[in-house]
Amino acid sequence: MQTRRIGDLDISAIGLGAMPMSIEGRPDEARSLATIHAALDAGVTLIDTADAYHLHADEVGHNETLIAKALAGHDRGRDVLVATKGGHLRPGDGSWTLDGSPAHLRAACEASLRRLGVDAIGLYQFHRPDPRIPYEESVGAVQELLDEGKIRAAGISNANPEQIRQANDILGGRLVAVQNQFSPAFRSSEPELRLCDELGIAFLPWSPLGGISRARELGSSYAPFAHVAEAHGVSPQRVCLAWMLALSPVVVPIPGASRPETILDSLAATDLVLTAAELAELDAAL
């Protein structure tokens, strides 16, 4: 497994996005645990989660609890960087709400610590800006958690370039990751990717294959991805992730998965080398 950097840590070049194992359409626990263990067996050392990855109002942190169980049952569980998030909520009616207040973020972090069963969270990310709360107050709360040792590294999610620079300043140059939506169907976060490349901050694309409902259609929506995939005898999804890795050494995709075979196909993208002509063909299609 190839590696990339998040802060001072070497982690697998592709991580596991665990959200599909806890939201609508989620599999049973046995299949989820098998999926996580398959990822670990293949060399994954980054798993992305959030306290808001759940269905019902009374199961906040479902995904974190699931990951903690999976890691405890695997001999490589201690080698994994778990990246979780706070500041996004699911009331249980299918909606998503926001609370970026320092009080909420502190309470959310403490709850995540308990669910993950750790003394410090490897990477804690402010999940999404809350327009009711000044951004500096939300990021300031993350900075306090970092200074207190509650978290080992700090990140932000769903941020624009101005917020990336602001967060990095507030954190004293210690911002290590930005997690934004980015895929062939969603290129509007390219300025954030380029800024992260400039600053040496890891860029974690979420829904890199276009999301749960669109990932299977990637090859039919973007013919060049299917064409290159056919030439290599691999899936269009694998080509997509290889293309993404080639964009910058700071890119660390976190494709979601709820089946062992899905995450194994994604991870194989680290061994797929695309030619300059193929990369140009893919770029021209977008």
Structure explained in plain terms:
With about 290 residues, this protein is an alpha/beta fold. A seven-stranded parallel β-sheet has the order 3-4-5-8-9-10-11, covered by helices on one side. Strands 1-2 form a two-stranded antiparallel ribbon. It has a two-stranded antiparallel ribbon with strand order 6-7. Strand 10, helix 6 and strand 11 form a beta-alpha-beta unit. It is globular. The relative contact order is 0.14.
Q: What structural category characterises the helix and strand content? A: alpha/beta
The geometry reads as globular
Number of helices: 11
Mean pLDDT: 96
Summarize the helix and strand pattern as letters: EEEHEHEEEHEHEHEHEHHHHH
Percentage of residues assigned to helices: 40-55%
Number of strands: 11
Give the CA-CA distance, first to last residue.
28 Å
Characterize the main sheet: 7 strands, parallel
- Our estimate of the beta-strand percent is 15-25%
Rounded to an integer in angstroms, the radius of gyration calculated over CA atoms is 18 Å
User: Spans of 5+ residues with little confidence (pLDDT < 50)?
Assistant: none
List the helices and strands and how they pair.
Blueprint: E1 3-6, E2 9-12, E3 16-17, H1 29-41, E4 46-48, H2 62-72, E5 81-86, E6 88-89, E7 97-98, H3 102-116, E8 123-126, H4 135-147, E9 154-157, H5 161-170, E10 175-181, H6 190-199, E11 202-206, H7 218-221, H8 223-232, H9 236-247, H10 260-267, H11 276-284
Parallel strand pairs: 3-4, 4-5, 5-8, 8-9, 9-10, 10-11
Antiparallel strand pairs: 1-2, 6-7
Helix pairs in contact: 1-2, 1-10, 3-4, 4-5, 8-9
